[in-house]
Amino acid sequence: MAIPEVKIGTGRHAWPFSRGLVVESLVNAGAGAAEAAAAGRIVEQQLRHGKRRHIPVEDLHALVTEVARTAVGEDVAARVAEQTPAFMDILVVAKKGHLPFSRGVLARTLEDAGLSPRDAYATASAVDVRMRQAGTQTLTAEDLDQLTEATLAARYGEHMRRTYQYVRLNRGRLGVASDDYSLPVPFSKGVLVQSLLAAGVDPDVARKVARVTQRDLRGRDDRVVRRSDVREKVEALLRDEVGPDVSARYRLLRVIRHPPRPLVILLGGVSGTGKSFLAAEVAYRLGISRVVGTDSIREVMRSMVSPALLPTLHASTFNAWEALVPPGERLPEHASLDQLMAGFRDQVQQVSVGLKAVVQRSVEEGTSVLLEGVHLVPGYIRPGDIRNAIVVPMLVTLPSADEHRRHFESRDIETAATRPLHRYLRYFDEIRRMQDQLETLARQEGVPLLNGQTLDESADQAVNVVLSRVMTALTPEERALLFGGDGGDDEILTEVTREKRRRADPATDGPAGDDPPPGPAGA
């Protein structure tokens, strides 16, 4: 004769009695395995001898507590009474309503985070035990996530906790985390392609490297990878695709995006040389988000000081000299060189006060900044005057007067004549003479000249100058921190030296330009 099946619960929500769940509940309360097994048999016998086909969960909980008191001891019985037994559902409050907690569902999510099936289920079971031992019967999804993260951190460390957190919020997407266990961010092929283009990689090669990197990293068990893993993968692909020089250059550009000290890039040049466009392009390539034009600083200062007090501040740099002509004296059609530079220097000195304040604020915040404008005169802001930063001054020039004039004509069309052409052509001779003077100062101060005729050429020159200056400015301690003493800095120094030779020799594949002074490492 078959023994009637005993079911737990009432009505439609009932399931077969399991002695194993009773034993599990007793073990969770601290009973030994043999004691729990014996008590489980007693519970089962009493249910079957009582000829009850259905028993509510609460009644079974009370029965297990009573049996534990006589078969195991008062302490275990007290814990059984306080805890949530294994045969009782723990309900999770989610957007879809109240759902029973499932170790299997949690284990699958943990597998996505990189745990093996065995470890994932063991961790899910540990979460289940912690909830039941705490007497939890209902909790929110957020509370469950926090408990799971705490369990992962205790069992596997902070990296696994962050990985689970990322996987939970970004289903199916590859994440990238820093080595300091900061919150991971989604891997972006677009950002990687941008970095590769800045390193001089051909666009087709850059897109291929980004695709292969994503594919190979996604094939790993870990859904969150470290930035160092991405860097090593990309550098290996670059060495295979285009050679070690570009690989070393890419590595240095990554350093520039996360420098040990803020970068302060000073991009000077007279009106019409394309500084604003160039500044935006260089900032994009180097990942610098803060770009400040000196014209904006001048405009703020104009709103605070009247023309009667500082007349040269309220003029353009190329006609500030007119404000210095004594009253009643006839204004010449064109200024002498002394008159021109006197007015120019007067305005530059005034605006330099605001420029230095902007630079100092960026350095204090630890934020890299790119400043562009005619007021960035070589020698007025010296690299040695700014502490705790890497300062890179440059001067944009246009050797061809005809090309310079065409820049003004193009700007007149692009700005719908808001910056009228006739005004700049009226002072075109003054602007060209100012450029000659700035070039002389740049050579005296060792400031590199950017004289490429196209935006790409000038941007390439600017990035090369920044690379060179950063490498020569890094201390031995900073190099060891950034490159780990694995010889990577030697490869980069070799590439920087080769790049400088290309720029110094127009016959090679790099644009011509003045070479920055050699640094202590011979870069």
From TrEMBL:
Which superkingdom? Bacteria
Read off the Pfam families from this record. ATP-cone
Q: Which UniProt keywords apply?
A: ATP-binding, Kinase, Nucleotide-binding, Transferase
In residue numbers, the region (Disordered) covers: 482-523
* Composition bias, Pro residues: 514-523
Q: Which PROSITE patterns match?
A: ATP_CONE
GO MF terms listed in the record are:
kinase activity
The Enzyme Commission number assigned here is 2.7.2.-
- Domain annotation ATP-cone: ranges: 4-92, 174-261
- Does this UniProt record's set of keywords contain Transmembrane? no
Q: Basic and acidic residues composition bias: which ranges? A: 496-506
NCBIfam families in UniProt: PRK12337.1
Q: What is this protein called?
A: 2-phosphoglycerate kinase
Q: What is the lineage of its organism?
A: Bacteria, Thermotogati, Deinococcota, Deinococci, Deinococcales
